[in-house]
Amino acid sequence: MRAATAGGTRSRKQRTTPSRITAVTVAGVVLGLVLGGCGTRPASVTDAAGGAKYILSDSTEEPTQEIDNFNWAMYAEPFSLDYAYAFDYPDNTVLSNVCESLFRWNADLSTSPGLATGVENPDPLTWIYTIRQGVKFHDGTEMTADDVVTSLSRHIDPEVGSFWASSYQNVESIEKTGDYEVTVTTTRPDYVFNTSLVGAPGVVESAKTLEEAGKDYGNSEAGVNCTGPFQFDQWEAGESITLKRFDDYWDPELKAKSKQVTFTMLPDATSRINAFQTGEIDGGFAIPSNAIDILKANKDAGSLYFGNDTSVQSMVFTNLAGTFQDVRVRKALMMAINRDALIKAAEQGYAKNTDALTTRNVWKDVPATTADEAFDGLLSTPYDLEEAKKLVKEAGAEGSKFVFATASLNAAFDITARAIASAAKEIGLEPEIQTMSNDKYTTLFSDPEARKNVDLLVTSWYLSSTEPLEMYSVLRTGDFSNYGGWSNAEFDDLVNSAYSVQDPEARGKLTGQAAKLASEDVVWGPLYETVTSMWLGKNITGADPSINYMYYPWAAQIGGR
């Protein structure tokens, strides 16, 4: 349930003071495409077979040799490598190669054993984990059940303030019940808890290191001491993070094929793309959509891949007491945006329209008929400018002002922000754009103070499991990520009840009912689904193009061609 802008969000780091502008000028092409829907597709855009703009790949070519190093582009610097605060794309892109969880999230979004070889659920309140033996931390010490207990327990420690505490909302105790056995007891049945352990909630760190590092754990000086195929080496603030291969890694199938990986911070999208083409940077995820066709054409420099994603680009109404307190105004803003045209203008067609806050692939464990029912029950807000104006007038909101926070993460994000602001003005609202640095923008998703005077923002929100309830759980009353403070007792009851249901179909039905309520109230406004994009330069190969890179040691797969 992690936030992100069109490339990430959710850190707490603050560096600059946001600037404010009150007027929005939108290029004619954006107005034509987003508001009128009458523009034409850029000449460089071509459709793949069957009309699709992209074809998903399961994997890439197997590497044929080891390499000394490869350089990977990052659009922003991680806030922390402490798994308790790793809540965003940059953090997890690095951390997934250094620290591991009890279970693995595979490229096809299935789950397999990780640091736990198995789990038993003998009764509705008990989860027993068998811990893998013979696993070493990067300092050479062996992982034990004590390390697992200490690592998991941080999420229920209020002094830590874990961003993932909601995953442990029903956990009563975490205990060592054998040399390589850990038992988690819950206060009530919770059949979502176990699925969360493929991500940050299931990460295991050395208990000794956690105690020694204290509050410095995960920062640029202390680093981390985990079990992954790479180990922390160096963090040059604002510049790069270097990882080195851990030669005593437990899994021979994922022993790193590169001796080192360097993550280079390149917040400017143009600089990243130029670096891809010149070979200065070997690869990267989240390729700016306006550069995709350029990179596709430059076959001599490398290859572009698309894979599974669980992300939905959405508007988040962060203040339901101001201009957006009336659901008619929220619905009107959705109806004022031509989303099909937005996808063409902002994403160059590399996205899909949706009325849902989840992608269909996270419903993979639910019968298709149940998923169909959930999606069919959602509110549809087709482009209708006149109806949108009417709704704003009925709500008495004409001329109402609101603060819209944004950042220049890439061209797609800029176009989306301008389109939303233009749509708002077209229906009689008055947006005040608050432009932030990339790093500053990320604080909006973890710091309530940073959101204090913000009414609207945009996020690319990804799920870190194939459990759709993960999305809707964050919209419950008082949840950490319920940014607008929305409260609906019926919704809360449905979500809380669903947690206690073991059968995926029955749980899916309850989730679908909750999704319908959130949709009707337009708590968040879904714009479109995105796709995972990955660039590999001509000298490297091996990684899978899938959103699982958030929690899977993808860098270990990369070697030479």
From TrEMBL:
This is Peptide/nickel transport system substrate-binding protein. The keyword DNA damage does not apply. Residues 112-478 form the Solute-binding protein family domain. It comes from Arthrobacter bambusae. It holds the Pfam family SBP_bac_5. The keyword Signal applies. Keywords: Signal. InterPro entries: Peptide/Ni-bd, SBP_5, SBP_5_dom.
